[in-house]
Fold these 4 entries.
Entry 1:
Amino acid sequence: PVLRLLEAQLQDQRREHEEEMEALKNQVDLMQEELEKQQQAFLQTLQLSPEVQVEFGLQQEITRLTNENLDLKELLEKLEKNEKKLKKQLKIYMKKVQDFEASQTMVPVERRPHKWNMQVAVQRKEKDFQGMLEYYKEDEPLLIRNLIT
C-alpha cells in the first residue's frame, strides 16, 4: 500500500514535470520567434535612412507605450474590483462588530470588555466624466465586456 502510494506520487510529479517542461519549451519557442522577428526588423531598420530610422523608432516606442498602458489599465480594473470586494467585506465586518457590541450591552457592566473605537476612512478617487468616451478600436471588445459586467 505505501509503495503504491509512493509510486502514484512519483508518477504525478513526473507528469507535472513533463507538463511544465512542455510549457517552458513552448515559451522558449515563442521567445525565439519573437527574437527572430526583432532581428529582422533591426536589420531592415539599419538599411533605412536616418530620418526613417528615427520615425520607425518613434513608432515602435508608441506601440510599446500603448501596450504598457493597456496592461496598466487592466491592472487598475483588477485593483478597483478588489477594492470593491474589500469594501463589501469591511461593511460586513463592521456590521458584525456592531451586532457584537449590541449584544454586549445585554451583558452586565462588570463583564463587558473595553469598547473599541473603530473608525475606518476609505478615500475615494473622484473622477470627472464628460459624457463622452474615447477609446481605441482594438479596445472595443474589452470595453463592451466591462460595460456588460
Entry 2:
Amino acid sequence: GHVGIVLAHTLPDCQIILIENKEESLVRAQRRSSELDLKNIDFLQANLDYFTRPFQIGVALHACGIATDMVLEHCIRAGAAFVVSPCCYGFIQNAVKFTFPKSKRFQETLTSKEHMILCRFADQTAVQLPPERRLIGKHCMGLVDLDRVWAAETHGYLVQVMTMEPESCSPKNNMLVGRPPQRTAEPAGHIDA
C-alpha cells in the first residue's frame, strides 16, 4: 500500500482505492493510513478481477509477472489511464486469461516459447551481474513492454515506456504510462431525424 498511501496523502481531493490480495499487507496499509488520518482511501481485499467500480487511473508498482497485464486489461476495459511498473518478467507465462505475445506484430515474429525465453532474459538485471548482461536484460525488458504497448495501442491508447530515475531505485525500473483514447461528446440537444 505504499504507493496508494502516498497518493492519498499527496492528492487529498482524489479518492484512492487500494486493492490487495494479502490480508497482512492490507492490515498494515490500513494502520498506516489511520496513523496519517487519511480520509480519502478505501481498502479492498480482493483479486483485481472482482473490482467493478468505475475509476479513472490505475496505478501498480512492481506488478509481478502477469499482474501487469491484469492491470492493463482492467484499465483498458474501464477506459482508464494507467501507470504501471512491471516486475518479475520471468514469471510471465501463458495462462487461462492471457496468451503471449500479446500484440499482432510480436505474434508475427515470436512464438510463445520464444516470448517466454525473452521474459526470462528480461529478469537478468540484478546489480551483481556483469554490466553487459544487465544491459541485455534491460533491452529484453523493453521488448516485453513494447509488446504490451502495441497491444494497448490497438485499443486507441497512447503509451510510453519510461525508466524510473535514478535507475538504481529498482532493478526493474520500467514504467508503462498510458492514456486512453479521447472521447468526443455528442453536442447537447442534437437529434438526427
Entry 3:
Amino acid sequence: LSPGAKMGCFTFIKVMMILFNLVIFLSGGTLLGVGIWVKVDGQSFVSIFGTLSSSVLQVVNVSYVLIVIGSILLVIGFLGCYGAQKESKCLLMMFFSVVLIIFIAEVAVAVVALVYTSLAESLLTAVVTPVLKEKYGVDNTFTHIWNVTMREVHCCGLNNYTDFNKSYWYETYGTYPEPCFAALPPLAHPHLCGCLLQGCFGQILEEIRTNAAVAGGVAAGIAALEIAAMAVSMYLYCRLDEK
C-alpha cells in the first residue's frame, strides 16, 4: 500500500477504536451508576423494576456485581479510547494487557465449568441446600423465587426432593412444596416426586446442554470481539513506531 493508503487505514482503524471503546466506556459508566444506585437505595430500585428485581437481589448482590463490571468496562473503555486518541503506546499496551487478562480468565472459567461440573455441583449443594432448608417458607421472596424456578424448570430442590428433608417447610407442613407435585400424573403418590422430578441443578444443566449452540455462539462472539480489540490495539501500537 502507498503511504497515503496506509495512513488512511490507520486513521480509519483509530476512529473505530475510539468509537468502540467510547461505547464500552459509556456502558461501564451506566452499569456503575446503576450499581451505586442499587447499593444506596435498593428499595427505590425494587419499586421501579418490580418483583423480579427483588428476587434477583435476594439471590445475588447485584450492586457489587454491577459496580465491579461497570468499573472494569470503564477502565477498558478509557484505556482504549484515550489511548487511541492520544496515540499513547503505554495506554494501548495497558488496554491490550487488561483485555488479555480478561480473555484468559474467561477461558479458564469455561474450562473449569466444563471439566469440573461435579465440583461446581458439590459447592452449590454445600452453599445453597442449607439456605433452602432454612429460608424456604420463611422468606416470602426467596420462596417465590424457588416456586417459580421449580414450576418453570419442572424440578424439585437443588439436587432432588430430599433437599427439603428436615427443612423448615417440611417440619412445619409435613410435606414437600406444591411445585414438586405439579408435573406428576394425577394418580401418582405425592412422595414419588423424588423419582419423577429431577433437581433443578441437573435440569438447568440439561437446558444448557440443549442450548449449547446458542451459548457457544454468544461466547464465541464475545471472544472474537476481545481478540479483535487486542489485534487492533497491537496494530495501532506497532504503527506508531512507523509514524
Entry 4:
Amino acid sequence: YRRLHTRDTRLSEFNQVERKVMLGSYTKVLFVRDPFHRLIATFLQGMGISPSFSSFVQEVLDSGMHNGSVAWKPLVSLCRPCLIQYDYVVMFGYLRQELGHLLHRAGLPVGSLPPELTDSQVQWTYRWLSEQMFSELSAQQKKQLSHFYRWDLAAFPFSSSFLSN
C-alpha cells in the first residue's frame, strides 16, 4: 500500500483492509480523559481567550463538533474507537496504575515511572476544580455540554463525570 508511508494521509482515508494491515502489527493504546476535565485543563492552560470559564464553554458550544479545537473535541470524533480496535485504554486519573500494568505487559521496567502526583491526588484536584467550574455554568450550558459529549460519555466509563448527571 503506497499510501501507508505518506505523512499527511489520515487513517480514515484507508479502506478497512488497508487499516487492518497497517494497524495489525502495532500495540494500540488510547489515553482518555473525562471531557469536562479536558475543558478545565484547556481553559486553565489559556487555550481559550475567554475571561471566564462560562464564556469559554459557550465558545466551545458555539464552535460545534466540526469547527472545534482538538483540545476539546469529543474523543470519539478524534480517536475513532469504533474504527480501531485498541489493545489498551488508559484512563487519566488511573494513569500511574494503568501505565505500570502496560509497562509490565510490554516487558519494560515498571519502576521507571516518575514519582510525581499520585492518582488519588489528581482525582481529588479535578473533583474540586470540577465542582468550582461546574457551578459557574448555566443549566442550559450543562445540558448542552452533556449532549455535546454524549458519545464520549457512552463509550468510556466516566461515571463520576459532572456531565454524566
